[in-house]
Amino acid sequence: MYAIMLSLIVFAAPLEVARSADLIEIAALESRINEFTLKNGLHIIHYFDSSAPVVSVNVYYRVGSYDEQTGNTGISHMLEHMSFKHTDIYKPGDFDRILDSVGANNNGFTSTYYTGYYEELANEHWELALKLEAARMHKCIFPDSEFESEHQVVAEERRLWDNRPNSTLWEQFEAMAYLVHPHRNPTIGWPDDVKNYTVEKVRNWYKKYYNPSNAVIVIAGDVPFEEVKAKVEKYYGRIKGIPVKRTDFYDIEPALAGERRLIIRKRVNVPTLVIGFPTPGIRDSFHSVGDVVAAILGGGRNSRLYRTLVIDSGIATSVSAWNEVECDPGILEILVTPKNESLIPRVENIILAELKRMTTEPVNTQELQRVKNQTLAAALFDRDDISDIAWFLATSQITAGNWRYFLQKIEKIEETTADQVRFFCNQYLTGERRIVGILLPDKEAQ
């Protein structure tokens, strides 16, 4: 942690000094990482950190909403719920009870490209997490009698989602932004698909995707590499690996033929405006420039749009922007809370004018460096504990095929130039490529 903080402190120093410190920090981080692969295809990444006597055990499977077809959306999330219930030797509630008894923190989650499980616990108990996750990987059973109660829990999550106006806006916005790419499907699943889950669908999904060859384990913390190798071999070495070929949808989305616009009315007090622009995925060398551009536009109170819309004109109460790209091409999104509905056209015009300016006027050196420092500081703060490090290692391994991707992205952000920013805006942030979502107060329902 000290080394990372040292890196952040030098951000106020001259450019070359700060850059050198960042590269030293990256090299120091990389020196703590080892990896190996078992014969069954299970890939293990180890990150050593003895600053505290704790270990984070993480098991990620290459399955998520990216792999789900219409009629089966959200099934990865349903399986995640069911995987906590029952194995050959563990009964419902045993996972939590056993881990609670040693003071561990554990949970699971489902995303677009992966489903993850983690345990954070004292280093003297870390082997316990490895043993439980091995059972989850190949010994889960799904009795008919235990399905419906968990099915209702997931269905209730879906109903709660439907009752949140901003969730509806985002779900409908993404469904409009992507015509065919799986990004258009919500991770929680479409309502009718959730309603029609069966225990047989859960069993089939588990059988296809949960095995060593389709998983990555990251063990981060105060446990030596040799001990990790021995224990992983002990619990996972005999599990059969079955390679899973993932369909590649990287280039499937057709080019935007013109502006798309969506207006939703719900019980809200203030409007919300989202403007998005399709941007390249991680196979494009320019994709990290999108992160810098988003930070220039809406990364904090010193960003251009925050100053213009919130501080100078006072027509909005909040502004933020980010480049939503984890693997395949995504969307640079600008989120604004205008003070009232009548101001939305003016807000849109100001945003478009700012984007136009960025296509003609190069960002000055001081602003570009401030934004890069800000982006890098956020990235390094995210790596300030072993759980975050584990997350970056696992997700980079799955989405980019190499855990070093998260370090390479830091270097690419450092190397971004003003010409690249201007090129990116010219290429991707033009008015005819915009996707607009607006959430307005439903006055009749108030």
Question: Could you describe the 3D structure shown?
Answer:
This protein is an alpha+beta fold and 446 residues long. Helix content is 46%, strand content 18%. It has 17 helices and eleven strands. The protein has a six-stranded mixed sheet with strand order 1-2-6-3-5-4, with helices on both faces. A five-stranded mixed sheet has the order 7-11-8-10-9, with helices on both faces. Strand 4 (105-110) and strand 5 (115-122) form a beta hairpin. Helix 11 crosses helix 17 (418-428). The longest helix is centred in the middle third of the chain and has 19 residues, at 144-162. The chain is globular and about 60 Å long. Residues 1-18 have low confidence and may be disordered.
Keyword list:
alpha+beta, six-stranded mixed sheet
Q: How do the strands and helices of this protein lay out in sequence?
A:
Blueprint: H1 2-9, H2 15-30, E1 33-37, E2 43-48, E3 54-61, H3 75-82, H4 94-101, E4 105-110, E5 115-122, H5 126-138, H6 144-162, H7 165-177, H8 191-195, H9 199-209, E6 215-221, H10 225-236, E7 260-266, E8 272-279, H11 289-298, H12 304-312, E9 316-324, E10 330-338, H13 344-360, H14 365-382, H15 386-400, H16 405-415, H17 418-428, E11 435-441
Parallel strand pairs: 2-6, 7-11
Antiparallel strand pairs: 1-2, 3-5, 3-6, 4-5, 8-10, 8-11, 9-10
Helix pairs in contact: 1-2, 3-6, 3-9, 5-10, 11-14, 11-17, 12-13, 13-17
